[in-house]
Amino acid sequence: MKKANAQLAKHDNNTKTNAPSKRGGVPAYYQLYVLLAQQIRDGNFRAGEVLPSENEMTAQFSVSRITVRNALHQLEQEGMVRRRRGARTVVIGHNTSKNPPLFEGPVENLLTRGIASIVKNLSIGWQVPPSDVTEALRLNAKIECFHLSRLRFSTEEPFSLTRLFVAPYAARNLDENNISDEPLLFQIERTGFIAVAADQLLSAVLAQGATAEALNVPIGSALIQLRRTVYDKDNVPFMYHISLYRPDQYEYNLRLIRETSSNRPQWRHA
């Protein structure tokens, strides 16, 4: 916590406007909000308990009073605390009925189980992909791929922004004027092109301008990044996608099995 406090103190730069810090562009109030919200979710502050006073948090985190007030206002907006003039801030709890996180891994699996989702397609068409996509799909430079960029919503809040690239030989039967809201892979497989395996990488990135605006988060907010390369039965890559998820809306859970049959026990995916 001392390290987090020092970081907040370093980034709390303007007591009147609470402007974003230069490093990462994340406002100090938002960093404090994230810390307090996580403590509430983890049960460090339970429903009915009071939070430290504004003066106490100002001293504890070495930030301005307006920073504390803005963080508390954000918590109130999220339905996690109740504030009254002249009284201490009371914890209501984490409102799990609003914007519930999605669990159990790939979005395709969630939709197969019937979890509601609203889709907004941002762009559809053919374009030359970035070099990392060209390399992943083993394509020559300047070869155009089918591209789809889409936002997916749970209730009223966006939870993922995805960019998909499909190699020409796998996308030739797709109708870019008739792309449905379901996962693009489902539509590709109906043309007879079947996915058999995938390489997947999870990491964390910071939200940049257009991405932050699309996902309705402050610039510099942490996002979960999933990159996946999908292979056909001949082990040829034909689809690559990059998905960015809001961590307050999405969790990626995996079940692991302890394999002890060898001399070097390992955890394996179930």
From TrEMBL:
The protein's matches in InterPro entries, at most eight in alphabetical order, are given as:
Bact_HTH_transcr_reg, Chorismate_lyase_/UTRA_dom_sf, Tscrpt_reg_HTH_GntR, UTRA, WH-like_DNA-bd_sf, WH_DNA-bd_sf
Keywords, comma-separated and alphabetical: DNA-binding, Transcription, Transcription regulation
**SMART domains per UniProt:** HTH_GNTR, UTRA
Secretion signal span: none
Lineage, top-rank taxon, reads: Bacteria
Q: Which PANTHER family match?
A: MANNOSYL-D-GLYCERATE TRANSPORT/METABOLISM SYSTEM REPRESSOR MNGR-RELATED, MANNOSYL-D-GLYCERATE TRANSPORT_METABOLISM SYSTEM REPRESSOR MNGR-RELATED
Question: Which residue intervals define the domain HTH gntR-type in the entry?
Answer: 26-94
Coiled coil (residue ranges): none
Please state what the protein is called.
GntR family transcriptional regulator
Q: Where is this region: Disordered?
A: 1-23
Native species: Hyphococcus lacteus
Which SUPFAM superfamilies would you find in this protein's record? Chorismate lyase-like, Winged helix' DNA-binding domain
